[in-house]
Amino acid sequence: MGEFLEFQGVSKRFGPVKAVNNVSFSVKRGEFFSLLGPSGCGKTTLLRLIAGFEQPDSGRILLDGQDITQLPPNHRNVNTVFQNYALFPHMTVFENIAFGLRVARRPKDEIEHEVMSMLKLVQMEDKAWHLPSQISGGQKQRVAIARALVNKPSVLLLDEPLAALDLKLRQRMLLELDLIHDQVGITFLYVTHDQGEAMSLSDRIAVMHSGVTEQIATPAEVYEAPKTSFVASFIGDTNFFDGIVSSVPDDDYCLVDIPDFADIEGFNGVLCYNDKKKAVGGRVNLSVRPEKFGISIDPPRRQFAHMNVLRAKVEDIIYTGNHTNYWVSVGSRRIAVYQQHAGYLLDEKPIRWGDDVWLYWNADNGYMLDDEAAPDPGLGDNVKGV
Amino acid sequence: MTRTSRIPLATTIAILLFFYIPIAILVVNSFNASSTGGAWGGWTLKWYQKLFANEEMWHAIRNSLVIGVTSTLVSTAIGTSAAFALYKYSGTRIQKVHGVVLYMPLVVPEILMGISLLMIFMAVRLPLGLFAIFLAHVTFSMSYVAMVVLSRLQDFDATLIEAAQDLGADAWLTARKILLPLISPGIVAGALLAFTLSVDDFVITFFVSGPGSTTLPVQVYSMIKHSRNLPIINALSTLMMVATFVIVLTSQRQSRRA
Amino acid sequence: MSTRKLREICATAPSLVWLTAFLLVPTLMVLTFAFKKADPMGGIGTEWTFATLRSLANPSYPAIIWRTIWQSLATTAICVAVSIPMAYYMARTGERTRRFLMVLTILPFWTCFILRVFAWMSLLHPHGIVKNILVALGMADPSSQLLYTSGAVLLVMVYNHLPFAILPIYASAEKFDYQLLEAAADLGATRATAVMRVFIPGIKAGIFAAILMVLIPALGEYVIPDMVGGPASEMIGNKIAQRVQNDRNLPHACALSAALMLFVMGPMVAYLFARRKGGKEGGRFSI
After folding, report:
1. Are residues A225 and A296 in the same domain?
2. What pLDDT shows up at residue C57?
């Protein structure tokens, strides 16, 4: 399986705005690939460049080795599922799905057969003769998918296909999309701003921000080992720590001095896994996910070889059922800590608002980010998704 | 609110009575043997007979239809093209000017358009008559067509075009299979409006009509002014109203089904 | 030139050229002819003069101009005032009734304008039904005059312009959030206060549009005063038509038209200004 869909230095401007800025990456045949990012990050533009609705200012797009950069949309073997479905309101469900085949002048009986098998795939056989206005949002969604898939595209482009559906329906369609992808086996390129959708469906995710791809990796990698502070904060919640390397005791770890913790008595630095091979004096931007922290009233046992332990004071507690979110102050910082209600916590004294606690984490769970300064200093204060 | 006010309903009923009582009396009077219409003089169809025998009237109706049909065809074509230009190229400097100019006939009082057209026709020595009336009617109705088509276009979902291209259709096929079927009700509505405006217009026509080029409203006006054959105007009104009511109601039903 | 530009020009040219030739240029001609002398043949002379413009100061004109303005304003005020309750009713009633009322409002106005005026002429006629009923009820003197009065002009003008007030106000009223009236009542407002301070400000875009759509054509009105009015109810439009049709003094007609244009520009500019100030909400109204 080689590179199937390839971007080579693709850029696109709209007036002064660089919607897509020198993007290069490739998608494998049969892959479920997501473009994830906030609105305006360039993900939809990238999709429209593949579909042919926009032309790049520079760069090339290759599909199966063929340069399709200049090809008009109707000559590209890719099909799109539009965000608002874009079903033709004057045509029945059947005619909508048959449109691409009719345009391609396929024989009548073949069209009939193909459309019917597509309707079966999306479980819409009984609605074949309805107009789009007579079916529900979820059903429109299926028709839109069927209309695109029936043409057997090399790549299926999906532009926020679930955004217009309510939560329950979205979850069901998510499963169905996954199933359809497994059944048809073609390459899916999925654009979304919803990290949950991207994480649960994709083989790989490209996280986009301001027209560039910040990280391209599997969902687990993107979450567990974010490359940049944007990726770390866009996918899941995190705490950032700015600091300067004060000593490098061995090849793998370094001690980082964090100015925010300067006034803590006896603080002599945070231990970090030094995968970037920083030297003394190097700037470090560290991301630690809230659930990676441990919190306890009693001093913690030494669980890991490289453990950081700090004194903290509990400022806020939010109980959410399957876990509890704490906001603790350490030095001049607020840090978010998410704790699952694992059994061992029951033995301990319950943690209350205002308690002095111990905060600890495995040095391996702190990730040094590519960018050396966190975009916002407020760290624990700007954790989303309480 | 505990008790709903009766004022809105009462006003609505009063307005509808105000709209329809004059029309109803006109219709009744078209069958009234008394020629002044102030009192009932018995049933008659003689006004209708006189109407059908009135040569001048038929001549005027013929003129109105000729101008109505030709000006509708031309103004629908130009107005539709204008609407497409405004929609597709919106925001360019040309379209900003175009939009303002296209809007003017909708807000300029008819009498000003009438005198302006008279001035230009005199300046270029165009003889006043049917052709002048045709030019005048195209001038005011194209804007109405453009606005009706434009509002239809603005409701049109532009991603449908992309969807059709995405499914392999070229520009021509997209226009024929997607754009036209979805826009045509707007074009038909625009044409219907243009035709009605043309047949109905009196003020502008009055300024640019010449001898022998009388349209129906001009003919009716002169009959009223000279108090000639007033009761046959009742008959004419009744027939025209029945015709328009039937057309409007069917087109309403059509558009509701679509 | 790019093909896109070329296509744009092809699509724009017919309407733009046509309207330039038959609307913009003629309007400018009317404005310049106001400074020309009449020629004895009933055309436009070659000499320039301010005399035409000065003759507008003739005492009869200020009276006519004043009458034109107040009759138009009165028509507008009545149309808007009665349209608001009807629009409210239409907006709050069921879908079917609403559609039915909409058709009923538009229907009479698809019939010929001249014939609608004629309907009122025969109603108000000295031997017409209204007069007969009023006399029978003892509410009018047999010798009193209904037709050819300013009252008749006002009545028929309201009749003809009313739908153009109802439609835009209804369009706004339909979008109005009626929970706001409940909120106002909840906060202690009486019904009248709620309507005056919540509903009417809420539909002001529609009201502005209605004012414009009634006032501008009303200022240029000519057929109605001509047919149902008397010499004491003439408007500028009548004078323009008389100068063209009867005395054939075109420069004079042009000067009057220029004056009318100024009056029409007034409310237009005010509307555009109000729209800019009030933001874009509901500003665009369509026919």
Report:
1. no
2. 74
Give the residues across from A25 on adjacent strands.
A7
* A167 pLDDT tier (thresholds 50, 70, 90): confident
Is residue A386, in this structure, part of any structural domain at all?
no
Last residue of a domain, one of A232, A258, A275: A232
Q: What is the CATH number of the domain that holds B115?
A: 1.10.3720.10
Q: Do A90 and B170 touch (CB under 8 A)?
A: no
Residue with the two structure tokens 């199937």: A4
List the single residue in B166, B177, B182 with the smallest CB-CB distance to A73.
B166
Q: Which one, of A331, A359, A336, lies nearest residue A260 by Cα?
A: A331
Write the single-letter amino acid at A162: L
Structural domains in chain C (count)? 1
B152: containing domain? 56-257
Q: Does B95 contact C185 at a Cβ distance shorter than 8 Å?
A: no
CB contacts under 8 A, C 133-192 vs B, are 159, 162, 166, 181-182, 185, 191
Subunits adjacent to chain B (3 or more Cβ pairs under 8 Å): A, C
Task: Report the distance separating Cα B175 and Cα B191, nearest Å.
Answer: 20
- Which ipTM value was assigned to this complex? 0.90
Joined together, the tokens standing for residue C105 give 């409002």
User: Looking only at Cα atoms, what is the longest distance across chain B?
Assistant: 72
Residue C12 lies in a domain: no
pLDDT on residue A375: 53
Query: Average of pLDDT values for C232-237?
Result: 89
- Segment B224-244 shows an average pLDDT of 87
Are C286 and B106 inside 8 Å of each other by CB? no
B contact test, residue of C9, C122, C240, C284 with most B CBs within 10 A:
C122
Domain membership flag for residue B124: yes
The range of the structural domain enclosing residue A194 comes to 3-232
**Across residues A54-58, what is the average pLDDT?**
92
C273 or A190: whose pLDDT is higher?
A: A190
Is the CB of B254 inside 8 Å of chain C's CB atoms? no
Q: What is the DSSP string of chain C?
A: --HHHHHHHHHHHHHHHHHIIIIIHHHHHHHHHTTEEEPTTSSEEEEE-SHHHHHTTSTHHHHHHHHHHHHHHHHHHHHHHHHHHHHHHHHHS-HHHHHHHHHHHHGGGGS-HHHHHHHHHHHHSTTSHHHHHHHHTTSS-TT---SSSHHHHHHHHHHHHHHHHHHHHHHHHHHS-THHHHHHHHTT--HHHHIIIIIHHHTHHHHHHHHHHHHHHHHT--HHHHHH--GGG--HHHHHHHHHHTS--HHHHHHHHHHHHHHHHHHHHHHHHHHHHT-STT-----
Asked whether residue A71 is domain-assigned, the answer is yes
